[in-house]
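Folding follows sequence. Below is one example:
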Amino acid sequence: MKVVIQRVSEASVTVKGKIVSDIKQGLLLLLGVVEEDSKEDIDWLCKKIVNLRIFNDENGVMNDSVLRVNGEVIVVSQFTLQASTKKGNRPSYINAAKPEVAISLYEQFVLQFERELGTQVGTGIFGADMKVSLLNDGPVTILMDSKNKV
């Protein structure tokens, strides 16, 4: 499982001209899933992300987590994070999980993240043509891969 974590001042997801999620201060998470991902990957990522100290404390030092600052979160499924660009110029998405597997893992990730955060998170619509808008704060952007825990 790969996740792009972006600290945002605001973010939103629009589908067919309608805003389906929007937040102020918090995190926008882009999630890419492979067939081999499991509950272990989900649990590790959710616990790690909710506790990442990437928000400024009262001294302007990145010392607070999204949990500590009561930040909001949007999780968007993005299969293109699993692209392979080794051959040619057209990315291959063969590593991305098939929808029947990816939907379940995505939904499990969202539910586990809500448990860790203690509040509901926003989402996109799986498989939809989404327009994601954000104001990256910092900018702070972090890539995490559950296959690289060490």
